[in-house]
Amino acid sequence: MSKRIEALKTAIGPVRDRLTGHPIYQSIQSPAALRTFMEHHVYAVWDFMSLLKALQQSLTCVTSPWVPVGSANTRYLINEIVVGEESDVDERGLRTSHFELYLRAMEQAGADTGPVVGMVRAFQAGKPLAEVLDTEVPGGPARDFLDFTFGTIEAGEVHRIAAVFTFGREDLIPDMFIRIVEDLSGQGSSAGIEGAFGIFTYYLERHIEVDGGHHSHLAMAMLEELCGEDDRKWEEAAHSAGAALEARIRLWDGVVERIEERTRE
């Protein structure tokens, strides 16, 4: 790992520690709480795919006629991640995107997919981003989280987008999900977990396997390519990465509140 990446990781270390130690992991103690978590987290799964496509559009040619864009090494790095995220394998060995796999996990668990599916259908119908976010995304933590993501994308600074993608998502996912997998394993069938959350457990394990190793290394190499030896870009990348972690903390805060509200209902 390069000294630049090490320095960035050190800079965001305190906020990252706050996130990996967030009380949300202790809040997921029942099937109902886990369903609430999934109903909010699915928006982060979806907007991760949007960050990915924003990077691919900036770093490769996605139009016809084709022309070379950027460096071949950077094109390889982002395209390799796209393949894994858009067309991985599910628990049956069938090709699927991670978002579609997550929707299947929600359906198996009995979580409400209606709002997020409605949002996707609105986009498929050609409605603009602002309109869809206003009409299809429930207000609160998920909406605030999406506002941060798409604000970053719309600003168009590719090194900042890459930093959010790498350290706000890919590099973070294993630490977040390992905690939840451990909780699921500890609860076992007595809590009604194994049958209802089998696909979700597979999804988590797959992310740990893929994002904990191959994709995180690719994403960090991509960020190094984009920032190079430009001190200003590295400072901006660290700032954006830290802001992404703060946005995730706010999302988790909101999920904990919603779990507590539903427990009292």
Give the topology.
Layout: H1 3-20, H2 24-27, H3 31-59, H4 72-86, E1 88-89, E2 95-96, H5 98-109, H6 114-124, H7 129-136, H8 141-155, H9 158-170, H10 173-187, H11 193-196, H12 198-211, H13 214-227, H14 231-264
Antiparallel strand pairs: 1-2
Helix pairs in contact: 1-14, 3-4, 3-5, 3-8, 3-9, 3-14, 4-13, 5-12, 6-7, 8-14, 9-13, 9-14, 10-12
Please describe what this structure looks like.
This protein is mostly helical and 265 residues long. It is built from 14 helices and two strands, in the order ααααββαααααααααα. It has helices spanning 3-20, 24-27, 31-59, 72-86, 98-109, 114-124, 129-136, 141-155, 158-170, 173-187, 193-196, 198-211, 214-227, 231-264; strands spanning 88-89, 95-96. It has a two-stranded antiparallel ribbon. β1 (88-89) and β2 (95-96) form a beta hairpin. α3 (31-59) runs antiparallel to α5 and α4 packs antiparallel against α13 (214-227). The longest helix has 34 residues, at 231-264. Mean pLDDT is 89; it is low at 189-193.
